[in-house]
Every structure is written in C-alpha cells, then in structure tokens.
Amino acid sequence: MTDVLDTVAGKSGELVLRRAGEDFEVIANGVFLMDTRNGESERLLVSVAADLVPGKARMLIGGLGVGYSLRAALDHPGVGEIVVVEREPAVIGWNREGPLKDVHGDALADERVTVVEADLVKWLRRTEERFDALCLDIDNGPEWTVTDGNAKLYQEDGLDMLATRLRPGGVLGVWSAESVPSFAKRLRARFGEVRELKIPVPQGEPDVLWFARR
C-alpha cells in the first residue's frame, strides 16, 4: 500500500513524497525520482570520490535526495566540510524536519554541513568556491535529466565549468541510472583519468558512477 504524505508545487513541477511500506519515494511530475530502498550507488558516489582525494576533502554534493550521499560523506574519515546544493525547498524540508530526517540520522544538523537552496547549474556559474570532490546526483543520468536546463551540465561547456570548480587533483563524481557511452567519451576528452563503476540493482540495468580527475 502506498500513502501520499505530501504534494507540493516544486520549482521543476509537482513533487510528491509518499510511503510504500517502510520505504519513502519521491515522484517528480509523475516520474519516479528516488527512494530509500537501497542507496548503495548513492553512498559509493561520495565514498569512492573521497577515497581518491588525499587528506580531508572539501566536498560538494549536488542534489540532496533522501540523504544517503550526505550520510556516507559524513561517515567517511576523509571528508571534512560538505556543501549540499539542492534546488527544491520541499526536499530540504522533508530531510530536515520531515520523515526523511530519520533515514540519515538527521545529517543536516551536523555542523560540517552547509545547505544551499539553489539551482546547481546557476550556482556553479556564479560561485568562486572550489572543492576537492564534486559529486553530482541531480538527474537520472546525463541523458535523463529532471529539467532541460540540467542537460548542458553534461556537455562540453558544462564539463569545462565543473573542472574549474575543482582544486588541483580534485575529483568529479557523476551518478547515473544507465550507461551513457557518449558522456563517458566527453569525460575522457577533458580529464586525464576516468573511472567507470557499474553497480548492480535489484531490477533493471545497473547504476553507473563515473569518477574523473585531471
């Protein structure tokens, strides 16, 4: 049985938070976006990126989701300060004060975490901040974006912009629900070192993680 807990008009359309048994689901414009059933690949996105950076990493997480990536970053000994950029205020609220708070043990209350309510693409263009690890999980993949505006982030100009936001030796991590060979090719054209991981999921094609470093 599925129960609708909240429905809001988000910045990119209707957002629905619902409970299915013991799990939570977020639906955007009628399309499934995320849930709390597994989260292995979301955790690996930040933990592998942190492993690739020496010392205490200053990390940017693009997309709060259900908080799995943030929790993994806080639990990783190689991560220091964390900036989370999330566009939807409802998602922040569900994680900070709502039912998703218990999913990650109230991770937003940790003093190492700064939450920025903003469109990630626009924020990256105007900020001068730089990071040791930049982890993106704002879409279902480079060719399956939540909004049309996000698509440019995965093109040549977007990758160049992301590279400028990395400190020397910094790592870019990207999450996807599917393999995208054309995106992997663009990554390899701009970064000297690219690693691709495929994470099996209970149903369907494996999730895919890319890690790139110049």
TrEMBL record:
A Pfam family assignment: Spermine_synth
UniProt GO BP: polyamine biosynthetic process
Keyword Repressor: no
SUPFAM superfamilies recorded: S-adenosyl-L-methionine-dependent methyltransferases
Alphabetized InterPro entries for the sequence: SAM-dependent_MTases_sf
Keywords recorded for this protein, A-Z: Polyamine biosynthesis
Signal peptide: none
Protein name: Spermidine synthase
Organism: Amycolatopsis thailandensis
